[in-house]
Amino acid sequence: MGGDGSSKPPAAAMDVESSTVAQPTSVLRSVLLSYAYVGVWISLSFTVIIYNKYILDPKMYDWPFPISLTMIHMAFCASLAAALVRVFRFVDLPADPPMTPSLYVATVVPIGALYSLSLWFSNSAYIYLSVSFIQMLKALMPVAVYSLAIAFRTETFRRASMLNMLGISAGVAVAAFGEARFDVFGVTLQLAAVAAEATRLVLIQILLTSRGIKLNPITSLYYIAPCCLLFLTVPWTFVELPRLQTAAAAGIVRPDLVVFGTNSLCAFALNLAVFLLVGKTSALTMNVAGVVKDWLLIAFSWTVIKDTVTPVNLAGYAIAFLGVAYYNHAKLQALKAKEAERKEDAEAGARLLTSEKDANAHKN
Questions:
Q1: SS3 of residue 189 by DSSP
Q2: Within 13 A of 203's CA, how many CA atoms are on the CB side?
Q3: Where would one find the signal peptide in this protein (predicted)?
């Protein structure tokens, strides 16, 4: 009781009350931020895909030069990343270990080569396939990553996982069977893009993560974009440069700086969105958000672009979707189990340290 007759709660009680109020607020804020990161990433990824389709499709902007478009993206991203790193000092380059020339050749160059192939093939596929069907084919990414991880021995073979991969593959096969605009060359390009991207993801784990090299998307672009640009000049010189010269001489090709500038800016912003999403949440969150994005793209392709989506398409992709959902669920459970094991090890270590201190105290 206070001297004026009024009762005051103890300080400890006040702390408990304030923490009780603050905790739900902080959790709500964290959840809202996570949803915001997911929303920004889905919006930008959606925009880049539709924008690339608009530029490359013969029925729209009709720019049939996917290598040139990819090179424009890489040149823009490399320049902006260099400015952010070297001029504005927005992020620091890795220092432990430092990126030496020999390390660059051994790690970044193979990843850059695969990234250039992935971008080239995936952008080329938009000329031949619908947006909806491309998204259905991209459902094979977990299958490719898991198969390559087993081949490179970064994953162990599990029968349940392989059955899951076979289920995803069967669903994509059904979707392909029902595709109204099936093009063998376009499907080959997209499958090659999936294979190149999956190999790149596995090599990132082997070449970068295992050596303790951590790159965010800005430093990744700083190192990888110039490498991609250099690799792409080889096929561009032989495949597209002669056609570009002929089209330019005939006055057919007149690139719009606004279109290509905003398209490149969206591509760079997408990399920043990946940095926010993965850095503030997790790569698994991006995988789950990617499934939502795929359904949105299929719906947009069907209703706005007027691509033909058959019931067999949807049934096949629904099967693949269930497989991908189970794959993400299994990964989440594995992460939870690993985190629980880590906590148990930490608690056991703390108990052991406490018991050793008590034993030493009794001896003294």
A1: helix
A2: 16
A3: none
